[in-house]
């Protein structure tokens, strides 16, 4: 069983984050799939979220803005590529949808039932190892993802 800290594994162009949550697989899936939940926890420390539109279906698009603590807004566009409730959500991050943001990667969010809780396994796959290093250097992507999962944990505590 994965402990409450985020385990992080870097393998070439892929980063895998793992953490155990003492909640049902169904609840963990729900907070990843509904805008009203996502707005409460999505993003690194200090960020807030505004969803512009979300079609949570295979092939559907989620457009959102992340508002940074420094006042900078970042538009984002995600396309869901494969969803199987409550087991996984796969998506492609398409940048900002306008060609301005230069971050493209695929994510696999896997919800693994373990005893009374759930292991969250979040994989981010970049086009190359160099691209992962560039994005991490420019945006602090790996630390940001750890904070992202930490904010999820804090939000889940409010639902217990």
Q: What's this, in brief?
A:
The chain is α+β, with helices and mostly antiparallel strands and 160 residues long. The chain contains four helices and eight strands, in the order ββααββββββαα.
Characterize the structure shown.
- This protein is of the alpha+beta class and 160 residues long.
- The chain has a domain at 7-43 and 84-91 and 98-159: Alpha-D-Glucose-1,6-Bisphosphate, Chain A, domain 4 (2-Layer Sandwich).
- Helix content is 29%, strand content 41%.
- It has four helices and eight strands, in the order ββααββββββαα.
- The chain has helices at 25-33, 35-41, 129-139, 141-159, and strands at 7-11, 14-21, 48-54, 61-67, 73-84, 88-94, 104-114, 117-125.
- Strands 1-2-8-7-6-5-4-3 form an eight-stranded antiparallel beta sheet, covered by helices on one side.
- α1 (25-33) crosses α2.
- It is globular, with a radius of gyration of 15 Å.
- The two termini are 21 Å apart.
- The mean pLDDT is 93.
């Amino acid at each position: 069983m994965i402990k409450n800290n985020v385990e992080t594994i870097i393998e070439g162009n892929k980063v895998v984050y793992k953490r155990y949550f003492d909640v049902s697989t169904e609840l963990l899936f729900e907070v990843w799939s509904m805008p009203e939940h996502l707005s409460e926890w999505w993003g690194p420390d200090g960020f807030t979220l505004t969803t512009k539109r979300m079609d949570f279906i295979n092939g559907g698009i989620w457009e959102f803005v992340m508002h940074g603590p420094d006042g900078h807004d970042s538009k984002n566009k995600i396309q869901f590529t494969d969803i199987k409730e409550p087991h996984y959500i796969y998506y492609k991050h398409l940048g900002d949808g306008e060609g301005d943001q230069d971050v493209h990667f695929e994510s696999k969010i896997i919800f693994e039932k373990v005893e009374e809780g759930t292991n969250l396994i979040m994989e981010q796959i970049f086009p190359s190892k160099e691209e992962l290093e560039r994005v991490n250097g420019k945006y602090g992507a790996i630390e940001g993802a750890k904070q992202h999962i930490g904010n999820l944990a804090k939000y889940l505590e409010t639902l217990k």
